[in-house]
Amino acid sequence: MSSFYQTEVVDYLAKDVNQSTYNNVAIVSRQILGLHGNYFVSESEYRKFRDYFGCSVETTVALWILLTKHADIGKAKVKHLLWTLLFMKVYSNESVLSGLVGHPTQKTFRKWTKLIIEQIASLEQYLVSHLFIDLNLNIYF
Question: Which domain holds residue 17?
C-alpha cells in the first residue's frame, strides 16, 4: 500500500468520523496560521496548513482521534499535536517554534512536543504498513 493511498484512506475516514474534532483542529490551526475565521475557505488556506504541518487537516484529525483513543496523552490538546507536527516539519529551535505558535515557554513547548512524539510512535500498529517486498518481488504481510 503506497503512502499516498494510506493518506487518502485516512483523509476519507477522518471526514466522517468526528466533525467537532475537525472543527477544533480548524479553529486552533487557523489561530497558529494567523488566519481569521473558524473554517478553511480556500485551497490556498489548505495549502498553508500542509506547508506548516506537513499533512492535511483530515490526516491531522485522524491522528488526533487515534491519539485520544489509543495513546496516553494526558491533558494534551489539539494545539499540542499541531505544535508537534510543526516541530517535525520545520525542525527549528524551540525559541523560533514557540514564537510561531503563540509564545509558550520553551519548557512548555518541549514538554508537549516530546510527549506527543512519543505517543505517535506508540501508534505504530495503526500507522505503519507491514507490507514488505523482497528483491524477487515476493510480497509479505
Answer: 3-140
